[in-house]
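User: Structure tokens for this complex, please. No commentary.
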Amino acid sequence: MIEILEKPAVVEKPDFVEKEEGRHVVYTFQGRTFRLDKEKARARLAGKMVINGMKSAELNVLPLKYHEAYRIYKQMKANHWEPDVIDMTKDCATWNSNKLNARERWIIEMGVGYFSAAEGIVGDSVLHVIEDNLTAAELKHASLRQIAEESIHMDSLLHIIGSLNIDLDEVTAKFQDIPSIQKKNAYITRHMPELKMGIDLTQTVNKQKFAKALFGITQVMEGTQFYALFAMILSLHRQNKMTGIGQMFQYTLRDESNHIALGRYILEKLIEENPDIWTEEFRAELVEFMREGIALEKEFVMDCLPEDMVGMTQKDYLDYVDYNADRRLTSLGLPALSNVKNNPFLWLDEVIFLKKEKNFFETRVTEYQTSGSVKNTNEDDLI
Ligand SMILES: [Fe+2]
Ligand SMILES: [Fe+2]
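Assistant:
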């Protein structure tokens, strides 16, 4: 039984204080205090595991074991945004004029076409493959927030399609047949059906399948295969073209950085609790999986940007794939696969995290962040 004792003003920094008071244990964190029955709280804490832990119908986040997951949840909530408040008037006028050349239109169409399917794949996989198999409440809680955000991303694509009056069936049909998209989607969903049916996660081989799916969705797909196309659309935004779409992709990318951080955190805790999975062979398998993901992504980048255009050099985007892939690998203690050490798009940091440059965009950059948070605290996770 949790009793909320007080509700002071929101504190800036996450804190956590635990002290015993008779048969209670009192937790203070995030500016709130909770009183829990000591014995029950201890039993719940002891039963908390990433997988194979105590199952409970109640989403009992307290007492917290995985503090970082709750912090990321709060960060995700602070970044909340709604697509339909983004003004698309200017995008609509640009789209219906001759202000965009054929290649720029193609990038926008690829953005809508690819992400319409990709956001659905991520949302469905996080729900049925990741969240379903997690047993710790605060990890499930943060994952559920991620699923809600994937729905917001899907809604943003609907807002674009509706505003530009794009024929939905035409776009869907057009992108279903592009081999580089088909291959990317097939690669990431290859092992999902088995995991969705529920597997025995007490066996090492199955725990590895789960870990690989987690790595695949959050580090390869969201962390590596989303970024080049995001960067192309934000490069158009930077040139003051399709700024409504750019703004939505800016918010989406900021959300994705939290999803990547959450996925990595869950993976780290999973490995910590299940050292049997982290064998040399398994680490090599993850690196190979990423290598395949990079090759598919580069094929896709060349489809999106077949040759250099004003302000957009194909090589930079290919390097960006390597740069992001290496960051995801090395952050998990895995070896880098390329020699790309520098981020070719440093300006994206500014765009995503809204450290505004004066007159950077013609449109007003809305500081679309609620109180309680300024930016993602772990800058290393970002883009
Ligand atoms: Fe997303
Ligand atoms: Fe995501």
